[in-house]
Amino acid sequence: MDIVLVPGFWLGASSWDEVTPTLVEAGHRVHPLTLPGLEAVDAPRAGIGLRDHIDAVVAAVDAIDGPVALVGHSGGGAIIHGAIDERPDRVVRSIYVDSAPLGEGGVINDELPVVGDEVPLPAWEVFDDEDLVDLDDDLRAQFRARAIAEPRRVTSDPIHLHDERRYDVPATVIACEFPTEQLRGWLDAGLPFVAELSRMRDVELVDLPTGHWPQFTKPAELGEAIRRAVDRA
Questions:
Q1: Are 71 and 95 a contacting pair, CB within 8 Å?
Q2: Calpha distance 229→208 (Å, rounded)
Q3: Fold of the domain built from segment(s) 2-231
Q4: Short-list 23, 2, 77, 81, CA closest to 224
Q5: In the chain, where are the structural domains located?
Q6: Which of 97, 67, 99, 98 is nearest to 84 (CA)?
Q7: How far is 227 from 156, CA to CA, in rounded Å?
Q8: CA-CA distance, 231 to 219, in Å (whole number)?
Q9: pTM, entire model
Q10: pLDDT tens for residues 99-121?
């Protein structure tokens, strides 16, 4: 299976380096992406929006012959969902790593501190304690050293969707900072931020207890969780 790996904010393809060996050893072909504006510290970010990131994932899907699994971490979950909306007939499973699909008109996170045309990685104090579980001082230093500022518009552009066949693509949610029991409670309560997920017709919920960046805190376990999800495709 071809697996396209989409990172969350501030990260590029290398953030998957410790996750991919499990998938490669299982015989899968991995395609970790670095999205526009995140190629380097001095890469231009003005004018890059959410649609540019979605289009980059669509281009990666189009470059592959055969079925594709899409994996999106954090904000990357909204991006893969936008790509699925464009290519619902090409994606056989979507995997949301500590994330969920974003519905029509939603934004990923427009509350992050903005500096000009970009959103730098904030101070750790900005994040909730649940985000930072298992992210020790060494991992925090490594993360900050590799972090690239996110293009501002990616965080705040509304997503636009048009093809309801996206709801037919089987999905796996790998829940890290909040357990699946809590996620099921949000779904049962009909909370707005899981409304799009509730419309999907085949959803599997998987627990991987750690903080918001399992590719750093539990990479082998994340690789195995992705492998199992892909194998069910």
A1: yes
A2: 13
A3: Rossmann fold (3.40.50)
A4: 23
A5: 2-231
A6: 67
A7: 32
A8: 18
A9: 0.97
A10: 999 999 999 999 999 999 999 99
